[in-house]
Amino acid sequence: MSDLEEIRKALEEWRRSKEGWPERREVFKTDAGIPVKDLYTPLDVEGIDYLRDIGFPGQPPFTRGVYPTMYRGRFWTIRMFSGHGTPEETNERWKLLYKEGETGFSAAVDSLTFAGVDPDQEVEGAAHEVGKEGVPLYSIRGVEAMVKDLPIDRMSVALVVEPLTSAAVTSMYFNVAKSRGLRKEQLAGTTQNDILTMTIGYIPWGSLKPADLLKLACDLIEYCTPMKEAPRWNPINFTTYNYREGGIDAVQEIGMGLANAVAHIEEMLRRGWRIDDFVHRLAFHLSAHRDFFEEIAKYRAARKLWYRLMKERYKPENPEAYRFRFHVQTAGCSLTARQPMVNIIRTAYQALEAVLGGCQSLHTNSYDEAICLPSEDAVRLAVRTQEVLQEETGVGSVIDPLAGSYYVEALTRELEERIWDYFLKIEEMGGVVEALNTGWLFGEMSKAFNKRRRDQESGEEKVIGVNCYVLEDEEPTPPFRTNPRAAEIEKERLRRLREERDNRRVAALLDQLRRVCERRENVLPVVSELTAAGATLGEITSVYREMWGIWQLPFVA
What is the pLDDT of residue 147? Predict the structure, then answer.
């Protein structure tokens, strides 16, 4: 009798021996609906070949991590997502975080910057949104103020903008660096620049059609990487985090992310670039959600699937192209306004998932984010959460410590298969752009959102403080309030800019941008000149909308 046969027989005996012992539920399953057994044994990893399917860190298929030493060589980057009020106030917050030990920065922009709207444009309610959800970056003057007296040649900065504004805001940052005597080649950072974020993650006012957003996203990839204008810059970060916040599960998150990456890769190849010209600079921004083991298995499966996609379909020669590098943000949608201090515990567990899953950088949410933008105390505690992980727990002392767990390996294999099937489903309908045009992706998001809402209302999904362990006389947490004068300050900043700049030059460059858009050439060269000349975000994006039109969303019932 083989070892596995002995185990199978012993397992059957064990199951008989526990008959009559009741369990809490009839069915256990993961967040993605994968059935969970009561016990995992060597039988569940039968057929998994260590060298072929798991391997060593830094080696294919990268299940155990993308680098040979992982955190024994260098800890992950503490990269917090921050921005509020005015660029000057955000600058103060960034200086505080720099002092507290943050090693990377993400500029969370306000909804107007996200939508490419100036606060003095005739868009209903625009002025009320200034600085409410992030930092306002409507012109190069805002970017100058945000990074004033900060060592941007030694910082890694992520600009959280999407294709509509990615060229303009990124070129503002590059131009500020140039004014300090820095070359673009010296700058390290990332632009989010992901077409799904603006189409299913968050739909701003006046969005462009998916094909136009894809064109703009690829313009930045092309400019930074194959054209070698900013070779250390990551020109796109496929932000599956934003779609996950809408309610989808781990399988859908990675399946949509891979399909989205393929859409951008195919567009770059269509433009005549080779895969090795750009693919090593593509990065991902994933979520850390509620299901502890499923999230860890998700990161391991995602690395394997990226390797498979590259090896089977694109075959790049650069070994760096096979490494799936990702930033993680703890799940904002898991935070609650009730008993907000419990959010500290949620975030710490989710941060541990990200680290056990091998992330390259991490944002930990602040406990008050279900109520307001993070207060100073809350964001300091969120940074400390990561510092405790790094300095006090020992989790960085060994690489991929959960490898070999029967459950984690079996779950990694199950997720790998389910994600690949979901990815192929999107491929079969023509890819991400077609899935957006037909409304299929909206349907997926809508079904997932409604299911999660029903699960919480019914109590199927337990949420501490909301549908269980509720405090009857809970005192509300005082919210952190952004600058009430932010709109006036930003309007005055734009008024002075328009007064001081060469308006005839800006008008001529905007005409040049219209011709570039008409010919569908890369917008970066002229947009860079525009932002250096003082053109505003709203002026630039108005040209896109004028030339290409606004997208009519294919919502489904």
Answer: 96
